[in-house]
Write a structure and sequence with these properties.
The protein is of the alpha+beta class. About 45% of the residues lie in helices and about 15% in strands.
Length: about 150
């Protein structure tokens, strides 16, 4: 869906984190690593099927969810509510700014959000506090195309 992918040779580690290493899980992890930016489970399954990979849609969903739970995939929702996944090359939690037109995703400095979430956790007495922050807009390329069309 988007440009700006990061590639890293962690597939074996990622598969091991989510349970028994199987060919199907390995194929899903490899496909996610190769994907450009965020991708939905159905789209990833379609890519695998087109390549002749014997992976069921439910296996794709379970693997992506397990990767997210293990901290090896970031998850956002598209405007229709579908969960989109992106491989997380390292253990650090990230936030992204996503173009609603082309899907371009850029990591953003999330220090202030992380500090705020930690403060809320400490002052509220809650444990295992998690948060979701989704930033979206129109990237400069898409914004420029819209402006050019409007000037015609």
């Amino acid at each position: 869906m988007a440009r700006n992918r990061q590639r890293t040779p962690t597939r074996s580690y990622d598969v091991t984190l989510i349970g028994r290493r199987t060919q199907q899980r390995t194929l899903v992890v490899e496909a996610l690593i190769r994907a450009d930016g965020f991708v939905g489970a159905q789209s990833l399954h379609s890519r695998l099927a087109a390549a002749g990979s014997p992976v069921g849609l439910s296996t794709v969903y379970r693997t992506l969810t397990a990767l997210a739970d293990a901290g090896r995939a970031d998850v956002v929702r598209d405007p229709g509510g579908e969960r989109l996944f992106r491989h997380r090359p390292g253990p650090e939690h990230r936030h992204y700014l996503i173009c609603t037109e082309c899907g371009l995703s850029r990591p953003v400095d999330s220090g202030p959000v992380e500090e705020w979430a930690n403060t809320i956790a400490q002052t509220s007495g809650f444990a295992n506090v998690r948060h979701t922050v989704e930033l979206s807009g129109v990237c400069p390329d898409c914004g420029g195309r819209h402006a050019a069309v409007g000037r015609r």
